[in-house]
Amino acid sequence: MKLSYALCVLGMTIVGSSVAVSRLVTAYPMLTGQALRYAVAAVLLFGVARFFPAPVRTRPTRRDLTLLVALGAVGLAAFNAFVLIGLRHAEPAVIGTAIGAAPLILALLGPVLAGRRPATRLVTASAVVVAGTAVVEGLGRTDAIGLAAAVGALACEAAFSLLAAPLLPGLGAVRVSAYSCLLAVPLLVIGAVATGEVAAMRMPTLLEAVGLAYLAVFVTVVAFIAWFLGMQQLGVERAGVLVGVLPLATLAVASIMDGQLPELGAATGVLVVVAGLALPHITLPHISRRRRAALGREQARPVYLGLPEDSIQRPGSGRAASLS
């Protein structure tokens, strides 16, 4: 179980760094760059799949393909499109704050889609994480397009886990990642052709190449495998709380890239996020049903000046009566 938590934290840490690193590729043709990224990632993932135990099925069923296409379109292509569009119209803080609300959505929708009632503690923890994220990132400056892109990125981030969850038991973490990346490529190419972006295709600069390579190898291959392996064991709602690690990683990497320390308010928000992440793991003292009943009777007894009723000498009884 500890390994599962560690994998999810690792995955979200790497994904969080991508929000800051993506600033290196905002000037590169967006859809074309993402198509290259996912094509490279798909080749690497299918190669890595050979070293993992064979899943229940190696080829997706028709239902699997439907979910995989949706995962590639929404969780991968659309998510990165929203992030890159948002970074052109808003500060990274706006995007990070919006994505930071994903834990609350997952804590609510995850169990509902599975036919269960949301766990109160997980919902509370997610709300604390979201509040801490807002403090960490701050509101930032944006326009209408940036705000819409931030909301779109939030929806895609939540859909990323919700769409992948039913696929993991059958295909496994690596193949879910590989197939979703593979299916995202033609969707991005079609979009690049339809928007005329192909005409603007060029060789990336050195910094753009470094950014695209980081997004392909670390954010897509390493982070996807780590996140899906951990989520497969923890479940959507419990793993979803750990999405709160994402804005912390975004803040840390952005601070390193900008060469400046976080402000005091951001550091305070980090503590709030950490408290929210720890809340689901705080063990409450166990009180038996008999002990709870006894405590209830004890609390129901009349109290005078802070003393139980049977410790008070009433007039006409005991020593009090002999003095009268």
Architecture blueprint of SSEs:
Elements: H1 2-21, H2 30-48, H3 62-89, H4 92-99, H5 102-113, H6 120-137, H7 144-164, H8 168-194, H9 206-234, H10 236-241, H11 245-258, H12 264-278, H13 289-300, E1 303-304, E2 307-308, H14 318-322
Antiparallel strand pairs: 1-2
Helix pairs in contact: 1-9, 1-11, 2-3, 2-8, 2-9, 3-7, 3-8, 4-6, 4-7, 4-11, 5-6, 5-7, 6-12, 8-9
Keywords summarizing the entry:
324 residues; mainly alpha; 14 helices; disordered C terminus
How would you sum up this structure in a few lines?
The protein has 324 residues and is mainly alpha-helical. The chain has helices at residues 2-21, 30-48, 62-89, 92-99, 102-113, 120-137, 144-164, 168-194, 206-234, 236-241, 245-258, 264-278, 289-300, 318-322; strands at 303-304, 307-308.
Report on this model:
By secondary structure, this protein is mostly helical. The chain folds into two domains: 2-281, no CATH class; 289-322, no CATH class. The protein is 72% helix and 1% strand. It has 14 helices and two strands, in the order αααααααααααααββα. A two-stranded antiparallel ribbon has the order 1-2. A hairpin with a 2-residue loop joins strand 1 (303-304) and strand 2 (307-308). The protein is globular, with a radius of gyration of 26 Å. Mean pLDDT is 78; it is low at 303-308 and 317-324.
* Strand segment count: 2
For the sheet with most strands, the description reads: 2 strands, antiparallel
Residues in β-strands, percent: under 5%
Output the helix-strand order: HHHHHHHHHHHHHEEH
Strand order within the widest sheet? 1-2
**Helical content band:** over 70%
Which stretches of 5+ consecutive residues score pLDDT under 50? 303-308, 317-324
What is the terminal-to-terminal distance?
70 Å
Inertia-based shape: globular
Structural class: mainly alpha
The value of Rg in angstroms is 26 Å
Oligomer status: single chain
